[in-house]
Amino acid sequence: MIEMSRPDFELLVSEALDQVPPELAALIDNVAVFVEDDAPSSDPHLLGIYEGIPLTERGHYYGGVLPDRITIYRNPTLSICVTHEDVVDEVNITVVHEIAHHFGIDDARLHALGYG
């Protein structure tokens, strides 16, 4: 396990978000991104989660709702990493994975694409 402060980890998440191609970033709608130290006790090894209504499921009724939420979990991510580069790679993969859920891409497809 590697040690990393929360501000340093948050910076990596921010940098991963900055790497999203502009044409995709422009399509992200009504989403807030958070960093939490620990995953829920029901799934303590979870690296990230998307909670919301994917773009593919939004209809004309969609409006006036709270933002969707992407949460990246610091401690579970650090627990599987040995080097700083491992953390950078894992954060990038997790951020892309959760954004993909916002676009309606399921876990099976993400695993096939190497973002599992």
Automatic annotation (TrEMBL):
Gene3D superfamilies: 3.30.2010.20. It comes from the Bacteria. InterPro entries: Zincin_1, Zincin_1_sf. This is Metallopeptidase family protein. It comes from Kribbella qitaiheensis.
